[in-house]
Amino acid sequence: QSALTQPASVSGSPGQSITISCTGTSSDIGTYNLVSWYQHHPGKAPKLIIYEVTKRPSGVSDHFSGSKSGNTASLTISGLQTEDEANYYCCSYAGSNIVIFGGGTKLTVL
Amino acid sequence: QLQLQESGPGLVKPSETLSLTCAVSGGSISNYRYYWGWIRQPPGKGLEWIATIYYSGSTHSNPSLKSRVTMSVDTSKNQFSLKLSSVTAADTAVYSCARLFGESWAFDIWGQGTMVTVSS
Fold first, then answer.
1. Which of A14, A110, B40, B109 is deepest in the core (most CB within 10 A)?
2. Rounded-to-integer distance, Cα A93 and Cα B24, Å
């Protein structure tokens, strides 16, 4: 399995909304509603922010939202805040107890 | 609150075996709802799933690493371990252990990670 495809970088201004895409195949994202998203500030542990495509863990801000269409999942961050500047990774179940991560997207808040 | 803590050598010689342990505190590793996994991040690169293990000992690995990966679990010590054999410089990375919620296949709790450098 190849890594899921994410844009290397995105940027936005405080208060704006941005969307990060995550493209897989019919063997992973296209088949399973088991996509998760992680926020990773360098030097810290990654944090789960979205699971099962659209669900947020308790305590995660509702300005994070997830969606999926076909083989592509998306993470939308609305009302950008400076503390949202981080790396974001998608992850999908790919069958046979295998998971695949995306290459990661660096979000810059201008 | 459940916590995970990685431990192991920070420097491994090429061709040798990398060995890491993840200690689980604040909860039982034998909880049937969860798997336990290892993920790594090479410098300047993204996350890569290595393998996961269930408390029963059932293991699943990244196909690209499968031939070199061994995972084990010690329920009496509430910890699990990773061995990666025949390492090269390409295995230099931050290695993190994490809990995987089986119903969602999401890693919901992570350790802080430990840097492992492969060098002579």
1. B40
2. 24
Residues 6+ apart with CB under 8 A from B75: B29, B30, B55
pLDDT tens column, A37-89: 999 998 899 999 999 999 999 999 999 999 999 999 999 999 999 999 999 99
Closest by Cβ to A51, choosing from B45, B106, B111: B106
A contact test, residue of B5, B99, B105 with most A CBs within 10 A:
B105
Can you give the pLDDT at residue A1?
67
Euclidean distance between CA atoms B84 and B64, whole angstroms: 12
How far apart CA A91 and CA B101 sit, in angstroms, is 13
Query: Mind telling me how many Å the CA of A82 is from chain B's nearest CA?
Result: 22
Tell me the C-alpha distance between A106 and A1, whole Å.
23
Record the tokens describing residue A63, joined without a space. 């300005």
What single string gives the DSSP state of each residue in B4-49? EEEE--SEE-TTS-EEEEEEEESS-TT-TTEEEEEEEE-TTS--EE
A64 Cβ contact partners less than 8 Å away, ≥ 6 residues apart: A37, A49, A50, A56, A75, A76, A77
**pLDDT given at position B67:** 92
The two tokens of residue A89 are: 């990774």
